[in-house]
Specification:
497 residues; CBS-domain; Beta Polymerase, domain 2; four-stranded mixed sheet; 17 helices; globular
């Protein structure tokens, strides 16, 4: 390897490490769980005595290890709590084998799964540790709640207990209202926009999971793997205080003749969930992108066919769908179905340059609201005079560009800022340019949230009158819009638009 290549590789590594540190500072994000691993876990043979396990844990300065016959066959997790209970409460002896007192069949996640998913899973299941697995089920590490940035902050612990303890939809709705109220308090107290959106998304995930679980108990669902998916802002972990539902359902059915029967069995359940979520403050999707719509309650093969058709025939409807459905992630059920769908999809957009070209054309159709001479461009017309739609002409230019770059460079992440960070490595984009883009997006999102919290009308939730901003805010917004112009210019050059 020549010296120039070594320098390039080192620069890429430093860039990747820097963005991982930014993600940790900003919040949970979608950085992979393996990035939290600080050391290899202790692995004990099933016949290891309790005394030997205690000694090893003490010497290593850790509180947990994995019980396994080999690194690809984990049998359980053993913690100091397990050992204490074994000796003091269960009459165990220091000479007993650890397999008798471990926590068997531990819950595990792939090491490439996002930290956000572990946060929600550990919070909902009150888990002390998660096992991380790599290729062929190989043990990668153990993660505890204390390893997760921001776990439990902002009163999340009390709200989580409220959500998990809710036994009917009315109770869940009350908890959802409390989450929004506490979120507003945290925002007013200065919590960063990225961290706030992730904080709210984590709790909203718990709310959605609790709703789905309670509704599922009321239906005789098909005995096949299935998963509830979320799209749009919820899929990007960017839910704010004015949001509606974008969801779907995926199920595994290998017998094509049975697919329609399975769909019809899931639809009443999905409709009940959509109604319950609406009662909890998540409005019905005006475009009917919900799991109760047969068009979005599909088998694995049907979802693959949908994405393939959108990629191969990028007509306006396909491009519109791409801005919503390509931000998908799993919420409840068999997450593997959704992860495998993303793994299948990941390399495909870059193989369809016409699709990316059309996606770029659509993105450039929503320019930031800043004129040639640095003046604001208003789009509210007579109904909303002197206002700017900060979603369409503020945050959307960033969201669309990040999606295109994320799809082009095969980024697993769905959130806007993590897509920018992931794509920056592949694009050799400088730290300062990427940081400026993220800060600009953050600035616009902060103004949007301020408007949503101060406005009681849904039609005006994203409409901002610059005259109501102070001088510093105006200056910052103009700079943010300039940043949006810059990334759209780069899109124009890259995609030859």
């Amino acid at each position: 390897m020549d010296e120039n290549q070594e320098r390039k590789d080192q620069a890429v590594k430093e860039l990747r490490d820097h963005f991982l540190s930014l993600q940790t500072e900003a919040g949970l994000g979608e950085m992979p769980l393996r990035s939290l691993i600080r050391r290899c876990p202790l692995v004990f043979d099933p016949g290891t005595t309790l005394q030997e396990v205690l000694t090893a844990l003490n010497q290593a300065g850790t509180d947990a290890g994995v019980v396994a016959e080999n690194v690809c066959q984990p049998l359980g997790i053993v913690t100091l709590r397990n050992l204490l209970d074994a000796i003091t409460l269960q009459g165990g002896s220091l000479d007993d084998p650890v397999i008798s007192f471990m926590t068997a069949a531990p819950i595990s996640l792939p090491g490439d799964a996002p930290v956000h998913r572990a946060h929600v899973l550990m919070t909902r299941g009150r888990l002390s540790h998660l096992l991380l697995s790599g290729a062929a089920g190989r043990i990668q590490g153990l993660v505890a709640p204390s390893d997760i940035p921001g776990h439990g902050e902002g009163g999340a612990g009390e709200l989580t207990a409220w959500i998990n303890g809710a036994r009917d939809i009315n109770s869940i709705a009350s908890a959802a209202a409390a989450v929004r109220k506490r979120g507003a308090e945290l925002f007013a107290g200065g919590m960063g926009v990225e961290a706030l959106c992730q904080w709210m998304s984590g709790l909203n995930d718990l709310i959605g999971m609790q709703v789905i679980e309670q509704i599922a108990d009321q239906f005789d669902l098909p005995p096949i793997p299935w998963c509830w998916m979320v799209f749009g802002s919820e899929g990007r972990l960017e839910q704010t205080f004015s949001t509606d539902q974008d969801n779907g359902l995926i199920f595994q059915e290998d017998n094509r003749e049975e697919i329609e029967n399975r769909r019809q069995a899931f639809l009443p359940f999905a409709l009940a969930v959509n109604h319950a979520l609406d009662r909890c403050g998540f409005d019905f999707c005006k475009g009917n992108i919900m799991a109760s719509n047969p068009a979005w309650c599909l088998s694995v093969d049907e979802w693959q066919d949908r994405f393939s058709n959108w990629l191969m025939t990028p007509d306006p409807e396909a491009i519109l769908h791409a801005t919503i459905f390509f931000d998908f992630r799993p919420l409840y059920g068999q997450h593997d179905l959704v992860d495998e769908l993303r793994g299948w999809l990941l390399p495909r957009p870059s193989q369809h340059p016409r699709f990316l070209h059309c996606l770029g054309e659509q993105a450039l159709g929503c320019p930031p609201s800043l004129g040639f001479l640095g003046r604001f461009i208003y789009d509210g017309g007579k109904e909303f005079p002197h206002t700017i739609d900060f979603k369409k002409h503020g945050s959307r230019p960033f969201v669309d560009a990040a999606r295109i770059w994320g799809l082009k460079h095969q980024a697993w992440a769905t959130s806007t800022v993590d897509r920018f960070r992931s794509a920056a490595v592949a694009m050799r984009r400088s730290l300062s340019d990427t940081a400026a883009t993220v800060e600009a997006f953050d600035c616009i999102q902060r103004i949007r949230i301020q408007q949503q919290l101060s406005c009681g009308e849904s039609e005006r939730a994203n409409r901002v009158d610059p005259r109501q901003l102070n001088g510093l805010q105006k200056m910052m917004i103009k700079e943010a819009f300039s940043q949006a112009k810059g990334i759209q210019s780069r899109l124009r050059l890259e995609l030859d638009l």
